[in-house]
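Usage

Read records sequentially. Each one opens with the input sequence:
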Amino acid sequence: MRIEGDAALSSPREAVFAALLDPQALQRSLPGCKELSAQEDGYFARFVIGVAAVRGEYEGSIRVRRAQAPTHYDFELQMEGPSGFLEARVETELAEQGSGTRMHYSADAEMGGMLASMGQRVAGGVATMLVRQFCEAIDREAKAH
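and closes with the structure output:
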């Protein structure tokens, strides 16, 4: 499944990038993230999601593939839970947009188990909602930086 879009953030690009690098800000911004702890090659993450067939607790890892200040933040996400698994490669590009930031994101995701049986339209809708929540939250975190 491919997910792609843009989000307009009111915070300056450097502040958004700094918030993405801050583990506490990142944890507060990721919808349903209950734990985010540093590991040698990224983060251990635990999520509790309460949306449709995605409902449940998921554990896995987030590995930063490329963090190029202040323009790119690319990562891999691997999660597993009662409804299946999710693996995604996410690329983000941060561009100045007036006094704010345009965040362009694209992700290639694979799902298995019951998650895969949701269908791309439902999964895409859930993913779009979660990405929107993340973008709003990371913008709030960037303003606090």
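Summary fields computed downstream for this record:
- The two ends are 34 Å apart (CA to CA).
- The beta strands are 2-9, 33-39, 42-49, 56-68, 72-81, 84-97, 100-112.
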